[in-house]
Protein 1
Amino acid sequence: MTSTPVIDVERLDLKYGDFHAVKDLSFQVRRGEFYALLGTNGAGKTSTLETIEGHRVPTSGAVRVLDQSPRNRAAVRPRMGIMLQESGFSPDLTVRESIGLIGALTRRQDRLQRVLSIVDLTSKAGTKVSQLSGGEKRRLDFATAVWGTPELVFLDEPTTGLDIQSRDALWDAVDKLREDGSTIVLTTHYLEEAQQRADRIGLMHRGTFHQEGTVAELTRTLPAVIQFRLPGTSPALPLPGRRESGGTFLIETHQLQKDLFVLLRWAQDNAIELRELAAGPTRLDDVFRAINNH
Ligand SMILES: Nc1ncnc2c1ncn2[C@@H]1O[C@H](COP(=O)(O)OP(=O)(O)OP(=O)(O)O)[C@@H](O)[C@H]1O
């Protein structure tokens, strides 16, 4: 038996006046899944998420969240943790009071000390929100996703403005949420974060999906890349490649292992050092760059 999806979007349309922001969009997120909703600027991600979160009414189509209408806030809100791009905590409240508010609004149970520790704001518990740094404010926003281990967590650009330690700590906490069974929906422009973690990706462009699938499925159609620099003089390359303006050679291939072997054998036979050699699968960045060619 397949369980009911945690999010079920069926033929969603959203219009702002005459402007058609989301067009006939359908997708599902399964329980325990890490789903990344990505896309170009203005693609319709925020509009879609706001509808799922219950802030917007669809122009047409149906949205179900946790088997409820998202407009049924009393039923749905306690089960969701939503980290918005700006949570809008009152500047006059302290960190402790702000986190207390999350508890009051969601009616989930948790311990203040536990959440303060996860977001690394224990020493700032008595500090007013207006006096927090940008990164500290962002960590406070993350408390909304952590408090009471919600069944469904939305992370909207969660790492913007965070230093590397804070980013690592945030992803560790997200891993812990997943271990505890939470379903995660991420939107971000830091594609490598989604590439590393998402089970599936919905890639939006101009109001609809350009592609949807696992990272492997999204990158399958594009070649992998081998890149390197060559010393002053060398014989012709054994494979078709191109020289970038900075002097780096690029070989695009659909047979990475085989072509890498050909290149390494050529370098060995000709006693050539391939400087700054790097080879890797297609990255999501390349999938994004390819969008505008369509
Ligand atoms: N309230 C509104 N009134 C009119 N147009 C709107 C409104 N909100 C969004 N739009 C338009 O709808 C489109 C989708 O916007 P949305 O914010 O959903 O995109 P996004 O994918 O989140 O973009 P970004 O990555 O740039 O944040 C954009 O062209 C935007 O200008």
Protein 2
Amino acid sequence: MPKILIIEDDTAFCQMLQKFLTRQGYGVSASFNLKEAREKLATDFFDIILCDVRLPEGDGISLLSKIKEKSPKTRVILMTGFAEVKTAVQAMKKGAFDYISKPFTPESILEVIASALNANGSKELKLHETIKLSTISANKSTNKIIGSGEASKKLQQYIELVAPTNMSVLLIGESGTGKEVTARAIHNISKQKDKNFVAVDCGAIPKELATSEFFGHIKGSFTGAIEDKIGHFEAANGGTLFLDEIGNLSYENQVQLLRAIQERKIKRVGSTREVSVDVRIVAATNEDLTEAVAQGNFREDLFHRLNEFSIEIPSLKARKEDLMLFVEFFLKNANAELNKNVNQLSKEVKQIFFSYNWPGNLRELNNVIKRSVLFTDGDIIGLDAVPQTLKTESEEDELGDFSKHKFEKERILKALKQTNFNKSKAAKLLQITRKTLYNKINYYQLEV
Ligand SMILES: Nc1ncnc2c1ncn2[C@@H]1O[C@H](COP(=O)(O)OP(=O)(O)OP(=O)(O)O)[C@@H](O)[C@H]1O
């Protein structure tokens, strides 16, 4: 039975949450202050800690490093008030697993707990991914890709067509278009829906660690292997393994991956025992893999194995007829998260939204809406709340692609200079992911 510790000074709320989670089958302890929590942590192990950010004797974040040091496997989920979201995001960088804004619904806390229990080690490092999980949850119940336009309908049809089969699926689309959301939608209506969905960002795994990440290892098999660890294949056994940014795998790792997929057997690093694995593979790429194959950077046999069925995820630009539907959806999420009641865009903002190119696609739209809601006091998003870059760029967009690219390149260079070439900070400033920034740096061949 997974064990949970709640640290919360609001005793009534704490007891209510304890009761609710106990009824759901968890072993739940509660502490009303940090001292009590420290005592419990000294003698007991918890799979999950639900910790209030603000406590009378200090903040929950101060506990984080201690917990991580003493019990690295424990996942910490912070419970925040609206104004503390920023702090919680900082805390995630320090190793918290996720945050949830109060008040929350029973479904949303169960969902965050479930994803923390299912998460693999690399998850904690991927800040945007954990945030993403909370943002898409509202859409999960329907398993539907929103949209009534042609491109969205076609996407939904492909998902429904391929999901019940055992075919490997290759998702092709620009960054932020919803490849992972699509992979989850496929999983959620597949025969494997009750088993794990494991998402792996192949671009984030160091080459030397990839074998152990995919196939696991046994204690002592290499320096740093301090205990037995299962890999992504075993974690996803019976379910779906989502391999994002597949084009970033080294040639050697591609060989290993192909062998595992074909033979349906893996060996943990350091072990001679073969383990049978049955996983549905959904892979994703934002580059032209056929080009990579032609240049000898991606194995043709693996490409064909992954590409039994391919789906092109349309860019937001190609889904403009659904733009307002997405706006409504993200508005609803942002209002719930930030405790606001913003329900529309002003005429001018709407115009900007329609003329802007949305290079960061749905992720960018979601970020812009969240930020604009945060800056809006009334119920309508006005020009003031919209990032300046969007306004300038939407004017530029009208001048055509050439000037847009020129502008984008300059904007990236400016952000990099402003942040002393710190890519994480620059990506944040530009409101894109680090991955997108790297792609754009390559695209514009910037020397950084
Ligand atoms: N169909 C959808 N409905 C609602 N939101 C969506 C949908 N698709 C994508 N999103 C939003 O866009 C964000 C990005 O989606 P996702 O991570 O799946 O994109 P991606 O193509 O995998 O990006 P990357 O290539 O950068 O990993 C999600 O967090 C979610 O907020």
